[in-house]
Amino acid sequence: MIMAAPVILKKPSATYADLEAVPPNLVAEILGGELVTHPRPLPRHGIAGSALGTVVGSSFQFGISGPGGWIFIDEPELHFGRDVVVPDLAGWKRERMPSLPEQVGITIRPDWVCEIISPSTAKHDRTIKLEIYHRAGVAHLWYVDPAYRTLEVFKRQADRWLLLASFAGADAVRAEPFDAIEFSLAVLWPLDPPAAEPASPSSASD
C-alpha cells in the first residue's frame, strides 16, 4: 500500500492588518512572522523609561549639559522588512534622521534602542528581538530591568552582541553611546528605598 505523504500546514505569517486589529490596550509586534502582544507596562516600568528618556534626551536631544545631536522617540513602531518591533525607547543621530517621518511605521534604523524588561516581555526582548535588532544593524542596545534595578549595555559586533557593562542600584553610569555624560542609575527608580548600608564591624560586634 502506498502511503500518502503527510500534509504539513504552515501557519500563515501575521500581516499588518492583524496588528492593526489588536485592541489598543495591548502593545502588538510582528516578530519572525508571529503576531506577539503584551499588556501596557506597569508604573514601575513606565517611570524607569520616562526617567531614562529625560536623562539622555536633555543632554543629547536638547543639548543641556551635553552635546545634543540626537532625536528620541518613545515606543516607536519600527519596520524592518516583515518584522514590526516596538522598543520602549529609540534614538537616532540627527544626520541619519534630518526630518521626522510622516508615517507611523519608521524604516530608518535607530542608532540605539532600549528595552525595559518586564515578565511579559523578557522572553521576546532577550531572544528574537535581540536577533532582529542585530540583523537590522542597530549599533547599541540597552536592557533596563526595574524589578532588579539593573542596566545592561550592549554593542553590536559583526556576528554577535558584546556586553560592554552592567550597572545596578545607584551605580554611576557612563556608557556608550552616551558616555559623554554620567548619571546615577537611581534616577530610574525614584520611589524605591535606597539600598541598606552594610553594617560596620563595630556595630556588628555589639
Offer a quick outline of the entry.
Residues 1-10 and 196-206 have low confidence and may be disordered. The protein is an alpha+beta fold and 206 residues long. The chain has helices spanning 16-20, 43-60, 122-125, 128-136, 201-205, and strands at residues 26-31, 34-39, 70-74, 77-80, 83-85, 89-93, 105-106, 112-116, 140-145, 150-156, 161-168, 172-173, 183-184.
Question: What does this molecule look like?
Answer:
With 206 residues, this protein is of the alpha+beta class. The protein has a single domain, classed as tt1808, chain A. Helices cover 20% and strands 30% of the residues. The chain is built from 5 helices and 13 strands. The chain has helices spanning 16-20, 43-60, 122-125, 128-136, 201-205, and strands at residues 26-31, 34-39, 70-74, 77-80, 83-85, 89-93, 105-106, 112-116, 140-145, 150-156, 161-168, 172-173, 183-184. Strands 3-6-8-9-10-11 form a 6-stranded mixed beta sheet, with helices on one face. A 3-stranded mixed beta sheet has the order 5-4-7, with helices on one face. Strands 1-2 form a two-stranded antiparallel ribbon. β4 and β5 (83-85) form a beta hairpin. Mean pLDDT is 89; it is low at 1-10 and 196-206.
